[in-house]
Design brief:
With 123 residues, this protein is mainly beta. Helix content is 0%, strand content 50%. It has no helices and eleven strands. Strands 2, 4, 5, 6, 9, 10 and 11 form a seven-stranded mixed beta sheet that branches. The radius of gyration is 13 Å and the shape is globular. The termini are far apart.
Length: 123
Amino acid sequence: VQLQASGGGLVHTGNSLRLSCTVSGRTISSDYAVGWFRQAPGEEREFVAATRWYNGSAFYGEPGKGRFTISADNAKKTVYLQMNSLKPDDTGVYYCAAGLVDIVTSEAGYQYWGQGTLVTVSS
């Protein structure tokens, strides 16, 4: 299973970005979760959002609650992270990950990771 994250870039405060995570390789089980994590410079990686492949249920970490929306297009094998009202604190490398996960907020359960896409929010 390979994950390709894309959609990062440089934006100003208040603007939006949509990140994409495309899954390729063997078909992933409907039991999988796909999550987004981010890592700011000098900081530990933190949970942003996740969705369960089989029912589209969504989970959000504190950073993006009320501003970020995760969604999936199963036909395209792609998970999106719509990020609105971006702030400089949202700057970081955003990683998508997939796996048979019990606790979607924990990195430990995710078996497959993409390479990350850089988001920079200027003030």
